[in-house]
Amino acid sequence: MRPRKFVSSRALSLPEVLFVVAIIMILAAILLAAFFHIRDQALTAACEVNEQNLAAAIEAYAADHGGQYPTANGPITLAMFGGPGNPYVDPSSLVDPADGSPYQYVFGNGDCESSVASFQIYDLGGHNDLTLRPLPHIVQNADSVAYCAGIGLVADNGMSASVNNGGPAP
Q1: Nearest 10 degrees: CA dihedral of 97, 114, 151, 138?
Q2: 47 class by beta-carbon count within 10 Å (0-12 exposed, 13-18 middle, 19+ buried)
Q3: What is the DSSP string of 57-126?
Q4: Digit-coded pLDDT (tens) for 54-90
Q5: Are the C-beta atoms of 139 and 157 separated by less than 8 Å?
Q6: Which residues have a Cβ under 8 Å from the Cβ of 113 and sit 6 or more positions away?
Q7: How far apart are CA 30 and CA 35, in angstroms?
Q8: Which residues contact 7 (CB under 8 A, 6 or more apart)?
Q9: Residue 103 near residue 122, CB atoms below 8 Å
Q10: pLDDT digits (tens, 9 = 90+) for 77-130
Q11: Residues sharing a CB contact under 8 Å with residue 47, sequence separation 6 or more, in sequence order
């Protein structure tokens, strides 16, 4: 029988350890950036769904009230639809998942570029511009999702309609 050769184990040197740590940190940074982008996309998608549901609730309200839309501009609340227990809106869809602020309602065309828009729903911003790129833009530096009746979802600046004190745009 042959005697076994013992292989000595050699520890990693400091530069080798630093190189491995640097590679791991670069991979972690890439993954974190991807996770944050996915989170932003999910929040924007949830906001879009909420605004579409609120628009459907406003349309149903108008259909039940002789074609009259709510005329009170400002935050969308349960009071706009007759209070708690109304058949139109789910209370969980009244706030923007991105920042927790209430959605805003403007009777009339608001910032919408169409004069046929009977109302506008918008959030107060805080969305990543990359997640808004698929939407048509009605302003340059969009950070908000808006719903224009008769048009649909658009990218907007969440504060632009509030510049007019919540009223319709001139």
Answers
A1: -50
A2: buried
A3: HHHHHHHHTTTPPP---EE--GGGGTSTT-SS--GGGSB-TTT-PBPEEEES-TT-S-TT--EEEE----
A4: 999 999 999 999 999 888 899 999 988 888 888 998 8
A5: yes
A6: 138, 151
A7: 9
A8: none
A9: yes
A10: 998 888 888 899 888 889 988 888 899 999 988 777 777 788 989 888 888 878
A11: 96, 97, 98, 123, 127, 145
Compute the distance between CA of residue 166 and CA of residue 110 in angstroms, rounded to an integer.
8
Query: The pTM is what?
Result: 0.75
Which structure tokens are listed for 22?
A: 């640097």
Residue whose C-alpha is closest to residue 79's, from 68, 93, 66, 89: 89
Contact 130, 37 (CB under 8 A): yes
The two three-digit tokens of residue 107, written as one number: 């009777």
Residue for token pair 């609730």: 57
Which strand (E) or helix (H) includes residue 6? none
Q: Is the dihedral of CA 38, 55, 111, 70 positive or negative?
A: negative
